[in-house]
Amino acid sequence: MIRFNIALLAGKITSFGCKILKNLLHRGGSNLPGKLALKIDPLFLSHISKPKTILAVTGSNGKTTTTNMVADIFEKCNFRVATNRMGSNINTGIATCLLNSTTLCNKSNKDIAVLEVDERSSLRIYPYVHPDFLLVTNLSRDSLKRNAHPFFIRDFIQQSLPNDCVLVLNADDLISASIKPENKRVYYGIDRQKDDASVCCNLINDLRACPRCGSIMATDFCRYNHIGRMHCPACGLKSPIADVNVKYIDYKKRMLILANGEVYPLLNDGIFNIYDEIAAIALLRTYGIDGNTISNALLDITITDSRYSEKTINGVHIIRQMAKGQNATACSSAFKYVCSIPGQKEILLILEDPRDQATGTENPAYLYETDFEFLNSLDIEKIIISGKCLIEDVSLRLQLAGIPQDKIIIGSDDPSNDVALFDINPNIKLFIVHDNYQIQSAMSAEKNLINAIQNS
User: Fold this and answer.
1) Gyration radius of the chain over CA positions
2) Distance between CA atoms of 244 and 221, rounded to whole angstroms?
3) pTM over 0.85
4) CA distance 11 to 429
5) 299 exposed, middle or buried (CB, 10 Å; 0-12, 13-18, 19+)?
6) Using CA atoms, how far apart are residues 347 and 321, in angstroms rounded to an integer?
7) Alpha helices in 143-266 (DSSP H)
């Protein structure tokens, strides 16, 4: 244990230094303490003391929002919570989180851990940090450079999970619903709503064929990609029955109404965020928190500002919406959400792809799996493309989607300057749609846009 004690001390010192720098520079957290601790002791995650109960959240989309929501509600219930709230979700980030929640004597000072876990990092985390509960938000096609196909990621997750881990799974996603069939599980889902489609309307559908027998799947209804309810006419495989089930979404009264009559406030009307909310509710209910407590806590919770923001300044409506970068499913859903908002719109689109450090190149392949066709709408008057890497690629993809070239405006590498290309008019809603690599750029652009509106 000498190596562990040295790693713990070094990590604590580094964490203290990082906190000082954070206060001076006003920047987010760092996974450096955990990285150093794992360098000194590769089994650091196994040796470090942990809270009595560990809940993990993973999946292709919605991990951060759901993790923060669950952690917030536990804190409102007076739990002392260890959580990697900033989204450092690989092994070094988990190590940093646990290190900051443990004394120098290696005693955990938290009641519970709520950990966001990168799905590709499963094999580096679950053998050492055994979750008592695992929530899987969904598994869909993600970054081609990392994640290949969702069935590959499913197998990655289930290889390392302990058999006594209770699973909280999306009944409307047959891929993630099939993880570790021998484990105890709870399913959550959303019944068919009036706007749901009868067939998939996306370019991507990762479940066209039955994973059991290979026959063509029949769709009962589809929300996006393969998310919905379906069955195989040949072998009988079908979507599981949801234990925590949304019967009706009341957008006007901002409520989620469950099949058992429970009512929860609707935090956001985007389908991704609705799934995140019901997933969080299902995990908390499975843990043992009662519905009234969860509902009351949700009244004081909002979606993380870095992911969604909605403001009205001098009568001009501004919406900033994040989509996960290099992720066709997330980008398509963001575009569909923009189109669902009534009224005339203009969009500042910031989609980047960090250059591969080995080759110095970008990979725009995901653009051709993303449904830019949703943006080919008469009520979208202008699309401004901003960024350093993919401006020309995005412009080409928009044209391939049938969007008239005179609607496409090529901006600069600075989104803050490109907000000047908006037409500031109370009759036009202004959207800033960005990926998770461009959060700060998008927030700076939003700030400049607000200033421009106030000074106009």
Assistant:
1) 22
2) 19
3) yes
4) 47
5) exposed
6) 10
7) 150-160
DSSP string, 213-247: T-PBPEEEEEEETTEEEEE-TTT--BPPPPSEEEE
Cβ atoms of 145 and 115 within 8 Å: the answer is no
Neighbours of 82 (CB within 10 A): 25
Give the model's pLDDT for residue 1: 83
Residue 3 Cα distances to 41, 151, 290, 398, 430, angstroms: 6, 38, 43, 55, 55
What pLDDT score was predicted for residue 142?
82
* List of E strands, 128-197: 133-136, 166-170, 185-190
Tokens 């979208």, residue located: 380
How far apart are alpha carbons 385 and 413 in whole angstroms? 9
Residues with Cβ within 8 Å of residue 23, at least 6 apart in sequence: none
User: What is residue 24's predicted lDDT score, i.e. its pLDDT?
Assistant: 58
Residue 443's alpha-carbon distances to 58, 327, 336, 427, in angstroms, are: 26, 21, 21, 23
Which stretches of 223-342 are DSSP H helices? 271-287, 291-298, 328-340
Beta bridge partners of 148: none
Q: Kindly compute the dihedral angle of the four CA atoms of residues 445, 450, 451, 456, in this order, to the nearest 10 degrees.
A: 120
Please state, in angstroms and rounded to a whole number, the distance separating the CA atoms of residues 440 and 40.
33
Q: Which of 141-150, 182-191, 337-346, 436-445 comes out lowest in average pLDDT?
A: 141-150
Count of beta carbons in the 10 Å neighbourhood of residue 137: 27
- Tens-digit pLDDT profile for residues 254-296: 999 999 999 999 999 989 999 999 999 999 999 999 999 999 9
Assess contact for 161 and 136: CB atoms under 8 A: no
Q: Give 356's DSSP letter.
A: P
Q: Which residue has the tokens 């709870």?
A: 186
pLDDT score at 286: 98
The residues near 430 (Cβ < 8 Å, ≥ 6 apart) are 316, 317, 318, 319, 345, 346, 347, 348, 422, 424, 449
Report the percent of the chain where pLDDT is more than 70.
95
Arithmetic mean of pLDDT, 432-449? 93
What contacts 131, CB < 8 A, 6 or more positions away?
A: 54, 55, 56, 115, 161, 162, 165
The whole-angstrom separation of Cα 83 and Cα 445 is 30
Q: 381: which residues sit within 8 A by CB, 6+ positions away?
A: 344, 345, 346, 407, 423, 428
